[in-house]
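Sample A.
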Amino acid sequence: MFDSPSTNDDYPAMRNFLNPKWLLLLNTLPLVLLAVLCAGQYAVIHTLLPAESLQLWRWFALALAVLGAATLAYALVQQGRGRPLGVLYSLLALAAYSGFLLVYLNQEQQLIPWSVPRWMVPADLSLYVLTFSMPTLAHALFVLVVHTTPADRRHSAAMSFLLAFAAPLAWGIVLLLPFSFLQGWHTHWLWNFLFAASWVVGSIGSLFFIVRGAYIMGLNRAEDAELSMVWKVLISLLLPLAGLLLNNGLLWGGFSGYRSHEEGVFGNFHNPWFYMLAVLNGVLLCLPDQAGKWPRLLIFLGRSVLFSYTFYFFIVFLPYLPLSILAIILLGLGLLLLTPLILLVVHVRELGADLEFLAGQFPRRWLRAGLLAGVLTLPLIITARYWHNRRVLHQALAYRYTPDYRQHYDLDEQALVSTLEVVKQHKERANGLAFSRQVPYLATYFNWLVLDNLTISDDKIADLEQLFLGAAGAREPEFTRPAAAPTGGAPALSGLSARSTYDARQQTWVSWLDLRVSNTDTSQRAGEYATTLALPVGCWVGNYYLDMNGRREMGILAEKKAAAWVYAQIVGETQVRDPGLLAYTDSRHVNLRVYPVVRRAARTTGLQLLHKEPLTLTVDGRRVTLGDTTARPLAKPVATPGNEVVFVSAAAKQALPLVRRTPYYHFLLNVSAKQAAGKAAYARRIASRFAHDAAYAHARFTLVDAYATPVPADQWAQELAQHTGRGGFYLEGALRQVLFDAWQHPGPTYPVIVVVTDEVSEAILGPNLEELSSAYPESSLFYVLGATGETQAHSLLTNSRFGQPATPAPGQPIAVRAWPNAAHAQAYLPDNATADIVLNQPTVGVPQPRGASRWQTGLLLHGYQQWQQFHPEATEAERVPFVQASFRAGIMTRFTSYLALENEAQKAALSRKQQEVLQATATLDVDEGPAAPVTDVPIDGEVWVLLAGGLALAVGQLRRTWQVG
């Protein structure tokens, strides 16, 4: 340990601040992290910055480098000399870093001008600069307090606290009054400088005397035991509780007119644990010193555990310390605002005293271990709780969106309830430095650990609540909600042309479809053009372009969610930009969006299509032919090099044998919690309608609530009567399970699905199950047997929730084509005039580059995509390799999109968002969905930096409480 010239061992914990190694932890590390964060922001936006802003960035980078290098050099020199940090260092550090912050805050708008879209700089750079500069300022202040308060003489704590309140007024009088007459003499810059300087000096002076007063209280604790106890009760117990009550609006009615019941002035601290820990922490700090070693050890361990609580609030209020002048003027609020700083000094003092006493009773290494274990207890408890939240939430998401159909699920619904409540609480983005429903820093940690820095849309939360809790879905069905579009004109297709060439080497047509779009209402400033194209089987999207500003900008093939998010942010800007987005809506339809189409100016865009056969497309009612339609049809199937996936053309399919499989009914019985009273009539209803059909002889039955439970055909009525419903009516999951079984085990029979329920509107059912169409080649219909005993047909291909007006009766055999032959059929294909993709092997891997043509690579990509629809459990493990395979081939899939962007900054932002999305869990969302407004992501992919900084500060606080002899 390094001692100051006035060495005294009565207060070793505070004197340990003089060790030069502290500068490595509290200055060098935070500045390096700040530089990394700033560099990340600069890399995205630098191409948008004007020359003046670029120069400012260079100057501030140089200033930060000089300050950091000088401080590091001083620390190394003092360490080598075996000398402590001096008074001159603390004064220079306070002046230099305060000056840096003043100049930065004054030039902040020039560093990132308003012309730079705020979604490109989602992190608040000012918050970063303040957060990572404050440790240096706080440490320099502590060093100055230690040097100016020798422990070998008597000091007055009351005088220090009195000076803390007098300092702002004194500096205001000394610095501001003599220059007040200059306001009318064109000295606006001088006035602003003096005002800011007086504010900074007054703030530092106030904080200095406050910390010094708390320090003196520790020095005088033995002499003034009663007074020390009064101060400790006030600082450790009463003021923290009063601060929580005031923050949460429980004193004087709070700010109820301006915030919700879960908001707080400085964050959401409504959880009862904050109050309980505040009381426990205050009681432990106020306990008198114990003479026995075992009681003292227990108190020491308790104080160690709650040190994390004290340190947490110190970190939370650290950015507010510059507001201390205003806080002191508002006497009550000021005392509460500064309580965490004073409490930290008191807590360190008590731990230091405990350590000094116990050092003679127990081995030092055991005390160190106990201190470390205690300080880590609360963070580890929080981490364990958040990890449990993550596990429960991701299990629920996996069951709903990426299930393993071969696995039996049984989730903890009650744990999910609490987890979803936390998710909803943490979904709100921080709104500046005041009035928030988030728990400061813990919300960031939660979003990182549980949500991978993404979110869960309100639709998905409602979906999970309806599924597992039986709650009524309050949202519109996904397929009825229109896509978001900016208000403006009504752009429409004004020109359509095609260019096709035949690649003889690959035996593939390469066609370009060129679209010209214009405003139909030229009085409107701007509008978005959107259309959907139906692509035939075997046609892949291989490129995309959008003309903008007199040049042709080729699209970037990007991860789908990231591309959609970037497009939404650009469209949501107040400035007019030029994005274009092309993405799959399902396996056979692509959506094209172009923004803006401005008044009379037409926009030109186009996409490249790779196809084996000539084809005709319809775009907004206009037909266009790609390729030579006089060419001979493709009469034979085409396979990938490894024969994993086969393209069966319409002509080739007609050569396959025609067979009729035997149908059987598969009844899905609604046994959800809400259907408990109506299920008794199911047996009568089924017998009345289906008992005489031939397909009923081999019927199967599945009980459906939150889970799908198959039951024996001869015992289904008994199982139905004994079943206790859990959650909602998860019809989609049951349909997927039945279709997976039919696809996995193709045979001479096939299911005709009949849903038995009183009200199909209560079912959890998406827009369609088109992606599983290879599992129902005979018919895309399923039937609903309602409360009236009548059946109504519904389509698996489109708008599955709504009934069909006229359909064939269920249970009639329908002819299909057998692949590759009737005797050893591996798949069955619908008997129609369209091509099909057949998986020729039970497992299809992610495509690897091995000499296939580009079209064949596309076939393998889409074949894998078809396999993955029946094996959604593989999504998480193979999503990134699949996306990378799509990138390599330049062929769009359902996981990727083509996005045309205007400038390099947009492309850099896309790259950053894409990396974040690919590192996260596949079932999480980037925003609230197609209709969501523009959103901010305050931490984005850099949360690890803030967490690293917080961890480093925490480790430092552990070390300073232990004196190394």
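Sample B.
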Amino acid sequence: MATTITTTLDPGVLHYMLVILLLSLQGSPAGARDVITATQPLSGLQKLVSQGGKFALGFYRPGGGLQDKWYIAIWYNKVQKVTPVWIANRETPISDPFSSVLTISTNGNLALLNKNSRSIVWSSNTTSTTAGASNTTIVAVLLNTGNLVLAYASNTSIMTWQSFNHPTDTQLPGMRFGRRNKLTGESDRLVSWRDHMDPSPGIFSDEMDTSVGAQFVLRWNNSRPYFTSGKFNPQTGAFAGIPSMTVMSRPNSIYSYEYVDNDKEEYFLLTVMDDSIFLRTVIDPSGQLKGMVWLEEKQDWMVYFVEPSDVCSVYSACGAFSWCAVDNVPVCSCLRGFTPQSQAEWSSGNYTGGCTRKVALPCSLSTPSMSSRYEEDRFYEINNVSLPDGPQATVQAANISDCEVACLNKCSCLAYSYNGTCSLWYSDLMNLQADLDNTGNNSIFIRLPASEIPRPKSTRGQTKGVAIAVSALALGVLCLVAVLCVLRRRRSRIKGLYNNINMTLMAFRYKDLQLITKNFSDKLGTGSFGSVFKGVLQDGTTVAIKKLEGVRQGEKQFRAEISTIGNIHHVNLIQLLGFCSEGEHRLLVYEYMPHGSLDGCLFKVISSDDVLPWNTRYQIAIGIAKGLTYLHEKCRDCIIHCDIKPQNILLDASFVPKVSDFGLAKLLGRDFSRVMTTMRGTIGYLAPEWISGMAITAKSDVFSYGMMLLEIISQKRNVELGKPCMDKFFPILVLEKIQEGDVRALLDAADMRRDDVNLEELERACMVACWCIQEHESSRPTMEEVVQMLEGLRQVDMPPVPRYLRVVAESATDQSSTLLDEMAAA
């Protein structure tokens, strides 16, 4: 059954006849009007501003003047960071806005003209205006939605053209995006910029998937799809392939996404409930689709969803003869023997042009014999890769040597891979990626001229006398070499290990770790399953080494931690660098965190000068939430931490939080949400389901996070075992003060003296924490929702008081042991 909607015109559209009349009577200062007429064109530094002041239109050049290329663009007028949302002449920039004019042409089109030659640089080119339309009857109006429309001056509700029907790289709220006419097949497409400084059309696009409907697809070069959103679900307000959008359609959300399908058209519609919120969806030059919102306090755009989340999943993100690795900076690297096709584009962040050979293959210049090809063309190996597109051919080969010969025997063969089957590539190598998970264990051999891979010179043909002399010399220095090897062996082993590629965990010997820790003499603290020591590598890198001690089934815990931490990478997760496994010696080597653990910064403060400022604590809370979101939602398998507490949050030199200690984590398949029932974790942060024996989900981490967030707010422990609790259990006090509207009373003396606490953030954090510690897991938000609430992207309602907190409030005792008993009973 078709779905229909009623369209309501912008309420301000009726004022334009009056505006035109006023403009004919007196001049209008530049930037004060929102209308272009034949007698009031736009030129130079003039601009239009929409009636509500939200958008502006004028001449724009990317980079703030680094190049003489000007465009007619629409941008946010109230955002300090100039952000274009639509560009007219993206393929035909002009060099001087003062010698150009944007006006209504004689046939009623909006046109960008060269003043001198009167030639048309760009035109709206709508044929519907030719019948009964002229430059005296048509006006161009910039609406407060960001839509530039052509309409009849006598009735501006009749539009002959609108920029919303011709988007560039951005979808704005209120813009219908899909199939505008089912009969003619007209449809919308977002096309990326070529790079961040060049708005000309790039090679990535976003459009509705007309073959399936109710979903959109991202394509490379207007042909090859590399990401599909999955079907849209009206009940959840999200696409099957983008579960993070579910929050959009929930009650009290600041935005919603709709799918409309009727006899004439089919489209998606993004709606924002609050007009003061600036939201946009952009197909980035990287090929990723990004949802972005403007954060006034940060004066920057924040990405609230991105697909595909891994830039290396974008087809040909790095072009030909390069490879993509998300851990590298930049992510794209030319293969050995190759150089960027365009160094200028490569420097600007546009890698899609790929790489080209430094030296042509000799066999491509002539037709040498088989034996000479062995001398002229060679191969170098790349390990742990996801193989490029293809292969173009498979041939019979008994082993890897036969496969190499098969490739060498064909001048057009550029690479080969052997894994029981010999695969050959004949065209540009596209989509070569680092296999961070090492799941495929694939290797590929790239063909290069011999000059790019020098081969040790052969001694064949030397005289017998020279051979004897060389042998004698070798014997003479043999002892010296042996001594040098012994002396350098220890140092070179450590250094060599750290020169490994960053995709591989480094295997240390126990003796190496004894050396760099000075026999484990500098103890940083005690963590789960053992103590942590400070170490310094040969190159000066400081590391933290966890020495696992006294643990039953320690090998199992060790391997769980290795498999969990070693393959994940996020700014808010601690990075595992290496390990040691020699008999009873099991150690983990981490990046070193100068500020130690969060509990030391919160609870072990010596003076008021040591207290973390509110803004720092708030950013720490957001960072931890982002790290847990990655574990729960972004990893290949859902990872439940199971022991979230301040001791397991480490702080780097800039107080960026890193979630650490995955010794208790369990890897879950995404199809399994309730599997663990064994009691784990730390008392004081345990969700009720831990104590009641119910199955555990990622929402258990949410509860622990909420308890920790309360501690970040108060800078005091919620529960002090063996000590009297504060006069009132802090979560109850938080709920009371929220209801009373007096969250300032929750601040400690140091915060009160600084008087720099953002009370809106404080109230938001308190309510988020109370939602996180709800008794029933279904009432708790996801960690992704927590991030959006803390960053102000989602409204936070007043949380209810959990039943177990009521039990605590009615209890006559303040002892923490009794508190835990009551929590279990509740």
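B remarks: Residues 7 and 619 are 42 Å apart (CA to CA). The two ends are 49 Å apart (CA to CA).
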